[in-house]
Amino acid sequence: MATRSKSSKAWLSEHVNDHYVHRAQKDGYRARAAYKLLEINEKDQLIKEGTVLADLGSAPGSWSQVAAKLAGGSGEVFALDILPMDPLPGVSFIQGDFREETVLAEFESLLGNRDLDLVICDMAPNMSGNAVTDQARSFYLCELALDFARSRLKNGGSFLVKVFQGAGYQEYLAAMRETFATVQTRKPDASRGRSSEIYLLGKNKR
Questions:
Q1: What pLDDT is recorded for position 4?
Q2: DSSP, residue by residue, the chain
Q3: Distance CA 133, CA 121 (A)
Q4: What percent of the chain has pLDDT over 90?
Q5: Which residues are catalytic?
Q6: Cβ distance 168 to 161 under 8 Å?
Q7: Does 86 appear as a known binding residue?
Q8: How confident is the model at residue 195 (pLDDT cuts 50, 70, 90)?
């Protein structure tokens, strides 16, 4: 049997002892990431009864769970991921690669002529271990998500996206500032302190 590396052992230990992992199990959420969205939403009130939104990179579904609960019966949640996701009440899901035109077209077709109130994106690429490559892949996904938000958000809509600080960050921040009246950073408590991830929140699409 293969031995675990020191880093994977450290991750496993951290995960097993993680307060948010235990809380997610207790509260019925599919992943600890649910608390990131809950905390941001508590501060910014992005999702409320009747909100129509898209969740990009949705699997395993914890953000969609939170969104569907907050948007209620009069809201709508449309989710997309390259990985499979078990069905959720109030969530319409398509499995496919967001980078492919055919998948994007299928998702656009699902949305119909709806203008979205909100786009949320917790996507990250499969990590190769090469920091430069991983950072470039991450911002490519973020750029695609921003393009989608530009085309589908209603005027005044909001966009919440996970980014990793490093190469490309300032350029991406500038691109968001061209699209939204305000752009703010969020680092929820459930985001591990050692992680370079932060969330950018664009409000009031022009």
A1: 58
A2: -PPPPHHHHHHHHHHHT-HHHHHHHHHT-SSTTHHHHHHHHHHH----TT-EEEEES-TT-HHHHHHHHHH-TT-EEEEEESS-----TTEEEEES-TTSHHHHHHHHHHHTTPPEEEEEE---PPP-S-HHHHHHHHHHHHHHHHHHHHHHEEEEEEEEEEEESSTTHHHHHHHHHHHEEEEEEE--TTS-TT--EEEEEEEEE-
A3: 20
A4: 77
A5: 162
A6: no
A7: no
A8: confident
Task: Enter the pTM of the model.
Answer: 0.90
- Average pLDDT (11-28) is 74
Interval 108-162: pLDDT, tens? 999 999 999 999 999 987 777 888 888 999 999 999 999 999 999 999 999 999 9
To the question of whether residue 115 is assigned a binding role by annotation, the answer is no
The pLDDT of residue 14:
54
Under 8 Å between Cβ of 162 and 124: yes
To the question of whether residue 81 is assigned a binding role by annotation, the answer is: yes
Whether cis (ω within 30° of 0) applies to the bond prior to 60 is yes
